[in-house]
Write a structure and sequence with these properties.
By secondary structure, this protein is mostly helical. Among the domains are: 50 residues, no CATH class; 86 residues, no CATH class. It is built from eleven helices and no strands.
């Protein structure tokens, strides 16, 4: 039994060796060396690419170069227009009017009134505010007037018009938070304070004419008063518990 197993094992090993030798011989016979063919193909491809790039650059070089535009007619017209603008006569400088004596006199009146004890000064303060507003408006008109000023008598005879109630400072308690009005931000609130507006009750009492006068002072924010309906908003906000109350008189 052992002899048979050894015999079969030997035959199996011999067959495996013969199979390996025959397989190696067969594959060696069928194998083809393509190294040289690959190198030839690579060199041919490089030559083809170079020729294609050269042909492309030659076509691009054949395109005509763009001509620079002739801007001399435009420059001539610009020079002519600049000369015409320079020949336009300039308007005479407006004559300024010195209103400092009037402001000094008003300051003196305010100081004397402030010394009077136990007197309701709200009506007088309102009239003084209106006078200061009218003086500021008059100063703007005079500065924008022609060189020849109007006679003083004509200016004095012009009837005084009532304007919005403006204050020198927040004299009636803590100023209201005007940013609660839709459309009013910190910058616009500072601008309103600079123009004497601190409380909701001031805005709520504006007439259409007052809106026009205040709108002229808002610079780049013109049109906000009517567009955002400040008067109606202020009429609601002035009734809030923390809002300042409108003084009597």
């Amino acid at each position: 039994m052992i002899y048979l197993l050894a015999k079969f094992t030997l035959l199996f090993l011999l067959a495996a060796v013969l199979g390996f030798v025959l397989g190696y011989w067969w594959s060696k016979r069928r194998m083809v060396d393509v190294t040289e063919s690959y190198e030839d193909l690579r060199k041919a491809t490089e030559r083809t690419d170079e020729s294609q790039w050269e042909r492309l650059w030659s076509r691009l070089d054949a395109f005509p170069k763009p001509k620079e535009p002739d801007l001399s007619p435009v420059e001539t017209r610009i020079d002519s227009l600049a000369g015409k603008i320079a020949d336009i006569p300039r308007p005479p400088a407006p004559q300024t009017v010195d209103l400092r004596p009037l402001h000094t006199e008003l300051s003196s009146v305010n100081e004397r009134i402030a010394r009077i004890p136990s007197v309701d000064l709200q009506p007088i303060g309102k009239r003084l505010d209106n006078v200061e507003t009218e003086l500021a408006r008059l100063g703007k008109r005079l500065s924008a007037a022609p060189k020849q000023p109007q006679p003083k008598a004509a200016v004095a005879a012009k009837p005084k018009t009532e304007g919005p109630r403006l204050l020198r400072s927040a004299d009636y308690g803590k100023k209201d938070d005007l940013k609660r009005i839709s459309g009013v931000g910190p910058k616009l609130e500072r601008l309103l304070n600079q123009n004497g507006i601190y409380y909701f009750w001031q805005i709520a009492s504006w007439s259409p004419k007052d809106v026009t006068l205040i709108d002229e002072k808002l610079d780049v924010f013109r049109g906000r008063i009517s567009r955002d309906d400040w008067v109606a908003q202020a009429g609601t906000l002035k009734q809030a518990p923390d809002a300042a109350r409108m003084p009597k008189g």
